[in-house]
Design brief:
Elements lengths: L1 H20 L5 H16 L3 E7 L5 E8 L13 H10 L3 E3 L12 H6 L3 E9 L2 E10 L8 H37 L2 H10 L10 E12 L2 H6 L3 H20 L4 E6 L2 E6 L8 H25 L7 E16 L4 E6 L1 H10 L6 E4 H5 L7 E7 L8 E6 L12
Parallel strand pairs: 9-11
Antiparallel strand pairs: 1-2, 1-5, 3-4, 4-5, 6-8, 6-9, 7-8, 9-10, 11-13, 12-13
Length: 396
């Protein structure tokens, strides 16, 4: 009856562990849950979960029971046993290591007076990724052969959970790395619509507001800087501009030297794309003003930045081949925003279509009409009255 009760308890614990492991994709959480269950189930004094890295180095990732908290990352059991398990992929059980011919002469067994030991490999996809080890330094015959089999079953379940958690962490790392190169909106858009059968995303028409920025006289400025200084300057400048754009929901389409092309309303639709673009332009101006003050304090020349805004329809989609794809935007507003950002002296200019989508009391002044893309006659252009002053004007 007692044996049946023990089996029933083990079945219940095994079920609970399977349920718990399937509910988390964090490696540390998985390891902690395995360790807690193993210590309780095996009636061990202490336990360790050891994982092997890509170079073959073993390290303690989790400890439990009576393991010294101050030495939680040190393996305090029989190194001979754990190395054997990891190397061979075979489980080990010893009812009394001090008299076991396999281990009795080992230093760790002698110094720690080790008795009961059981260790099983963590195996996934045919590779040993670590081991689960438990022992009792003071009592012999705590573990039996059936305990080894049951612990191996737990380890097999744990290995799958650990591998899943590692794969998830790896995919999240790659996703975050990808987002350094591609805006999060585009990342989410592409991943949500892509699979093994779908690589090219069909074009979608979007009503958007495009924002293009350009540093006036940048060619001359770059010639006056050393290469490292130029890169530091651009990284500092773009860090400020990017924050201003992202905080207002913009999607950075591309960088072009010192220029930046931003879209509001694609790939994800936004009903207030023009308002967001205007808010981003104002935030950018504030950051440029702060940067210019810092440049003045350093005895360096200030910069002026032209910003162009245009609203209209674009086609958003993949362009390229199976070897190289780029999510891009095609349409008149892309060209117009670029053109307006190049007007000198540098200022914030917007087309009539953008102006008409903004508040009637917006403080703008009439600018000289210009011929925009696809037009044969000059079109009304509006200049945003600066909340902050770009003191460095360039006629370049």
């Amino acid at each position: 009856m007692r044996q049946e009760a023990d089996l029933g308890m083990r079945d219940r614990i095994f079920y609970e562990l399977a349920r718990d492991l399937s509910s988390s994709l964090e490696v540390d959480v998985v390891l902690e849950r395995v360790m807690d269950r193993v210590i309780s189930l095996m009636k061990a004094s202490r336990g360790f979960i050891v994982l092997v890295d890509a170079t073959g180095i073993m390290s303690v990732q989790m400890s439990g029971g009576d393991a010294d908290p101050e030495k939680s990352k040190e393996f305090l059991g029989s190194r001979t046993v754990i190395e054997h398990v990891v190397r061979t992929g075979n489980a080990v059980v010893s009812t009394d290591a001090s008299t076991d011919d396999r281990f009795k002469g080992q230093q760790s067994v002698i110094l720690q007076n080790l008795r009961s030991i059981i260790a099983v490999p963590l195996v996934t996809k045919g590779s040993v990724i670590g081991a689960v080890y438990v022992d009792n330094p003071f009592r012999a015959s705590v573990f039996a052969e059936k305990d080894k089999e049951f612990l191996q079953a737990i380890a097999d379940l744990a290995a799958i959970a650990i591998d899943n958690a590692r794969q998830y962490e790896r995919s999240e790392f790659l996703r975050q790395l990808f987002e350094l190169y591609v805006n999060k909106q585009v990342t989410d858009y592409v991943l949500a619509r892509s699979d093994r059968e779908t690589k090219f995303l069909p074009g979608e028409r979007r009503q958007v507001t495009m924002l293009n920025s350009d540093i006036a006289g940048f060619s001359a400025l770059s010639q006056s800087m050393e290469a490292e200084e130029l890169v530091r300057f651009l990284n500092d400048y773009f860090a400020r501009m990017i924050d201003a754009v992202l905080e207002n929901g913009g999607n950075i389409d591309k960088f072009q030297g010192d220029g930046m092309l931003v879209v509001f309303g694609a790939p994800n639709p936004q009903v207030d794309h023009a308002q967001r673009a205007l808010a981003a332009a104002r935030a950018m101006l504030k950051e440029i003003d702060i940067l210019n003050q810092e440049l003045t304090d350093l005895g360096k020349p200030q910069i002026a930045v032209g910003i162009g805004l245009d609203t209209g329809e674009v086609v958003a989609g993949h362009v390229g081949s199976e070897k190289r794809l780029e999510f891009t935007l095609i349409g008149v507003p892309v060209n117009n925003s670029f053109y307006l950002s190049k007007v000198r002296p540098a200022k914030v200019l917007m087309s009539e279509t953008t102006r008409n989508m903004l508040a009637a009391d917006l403080e703008v002044i009439d600018h000289e009409p210009l011929i925009l893309k696809g037009m044969t006659e000059k079109q009304p252009i509006y200049q945003l009255q600066m909340v902050v002053t770009q003191e460095a004007e360039s006629g370049v």
